[in-house]
Amino acid sequence: MTYETLSVSVDDRVALITLDRPDQLNAMNAAFWNELPAAVRALDADGGVRAIVINANGKHFTAGLDLGMFGAPPDPADRTARVQKAARFRQHTALMQQSFSALEECRVPVIAAVHGGCIGGGVDLISACDLRYASADAFLTIYEVNVGLTADVGTFPRLCKLLPEGIVRELAYTGRRMGAEEAEYRGLFNAVLDGREATLGKAMEVAREIAGKSPLAVHGCKRMITYARDHNTADALDYVVTWNAGMLHVEEVQAAIEAGKQGGEGDFTPLPPLAGEVKGGV
């Protein structure tokens, strides 16, 4: 499938999504909010992809929301437009939130390779990823406060679980830049590399390592970690036992053990393709 705002390639079970509006600093226009989740869901539905890496072309990872998406205020004389304004805003914002939730809901790990600026909506994006690697020149900023907005597409629910609350509050209230070194120190970035190519190389290396593990086991890990983050310990313990009661298969365990002995790749079963419609023979 061809996209307007990004490109997608798959090599040896690892997918690479590249934000590709470099002349616009990869600002997130209307097409982006539809295309990113469509690409992620298509890759997930295939069943053959075991990890996804998101990177970007150009000077910056992303400048965030394309301000061109803000339309003119409704005509004061247009009652329908005035009454529907809040409802339309809520509906559109919910759809944008789902664009990044698709990264979290995807069955396979999603890895961000960040360089340059990761601004506004970019913070929402990387917060929904599983792992984050960055180049030394990378920085992030919750920029919305600088243009009179409150970040609302996912920054706070997720970033508050990745950084200390006081740091999130400082970033949100001031709009200041957090550099790559500080972000790594705070635990947001898994590692900082010398440049963009090294950053992408590291992200792809980790993705390929993940792709060599049991897809079902990795899927279970992702589900359990996210669930444990959002629930209490007792509920998380109960869920992981229930999950393994149905999802743990001795064949996958044996394949992993054999791979460890031989030092090669395990003969793992891929995840099933996601069904697009209800069919018989489940």
From TrEMBL:
Coiled coil: none annotated. InterPro entries: ClpP/crotonase-like_dom_sf, Ech1-like, Enoyl-CoA_hyd/isom_CS, Enoyl-CoA_hydra/iso, Enoyl-CoA_hydra_C. Gene3D superfamilies: 2-enoyl-CoA Hydratase, Chain A, domain 1 (3.90.226.10), Lyase 2-enoyl-coa Hydratase, Chain A, domain 2 (1.10.12.10). Pathway: Lipid metabolism; fatty acid beta-oxidation. Residues 262-282 are annotated as: Disordered. Keywords: Fatty acid metabolism, Isomerase, Lipid metabolism. The keyword Lipid metabolism applies. Belongs to the enoyl-CoA hydratase/isomerase family. PANTHER family: DELTA(3,5)-DELTA(2,4)-DIENOYL-COA ISOMERASE, MITOCHONDRIAL (PTHR43149:SF1), ENOYL-COA HYDRATASE (PTHR43149). This is Crotonase/enoyl-CoA hydratase family protein. It comes from Alloalcanivorax gelatiniphagus.
